[in-house]
Structure formats: structure tokens, C-alpha cells
Amino acid sequence: MNKFERAEKIGLRDKSSKELIVVYPFKAEGSDAEVEKTVRDWYYKQSCKAEDQLLNAYVDVVTEHEHEQKVKK
Q: What is the pTM of this model?
């Protein structure tokens, strides 16, 4: 079973603080490796500072509560 197979939302999380950086706005499909590459590539295209953030980030499942909190910010 893939880690992201049943995930409603996924996003990028900081490795050190575990803080949610961004929620991926699309449905994730494919193997875990494909999902991770897709999310990281998408975020890289979003901003110049993304490259530095990606060095210390990982793709993770996002809870509904975390998603709501991120949207409020």
C-alpha cells in the first residue's frame, strides 16, 4: 500500500520543525515516488525561494485540521 494512496490532502513539510509549508492543491495520483516528484516539481515552479526550501522539506499527508489552519493564514 502506498503512503499517499488514501490521502485526501498532501503537502510539503519542513524536516526540522515539521511545520507545514504548503498544501498541494491537486489530487495526487501514482506511486509514492511519482507523487513526491510531482509535488516537489510543482512547488519548485511556484517561487524562487522554493529551491532552498525544498532542500529541507519532505512530502507528507496533511490532516484536514492542518489544511484549515493553513488556509486561514
A: 0.87
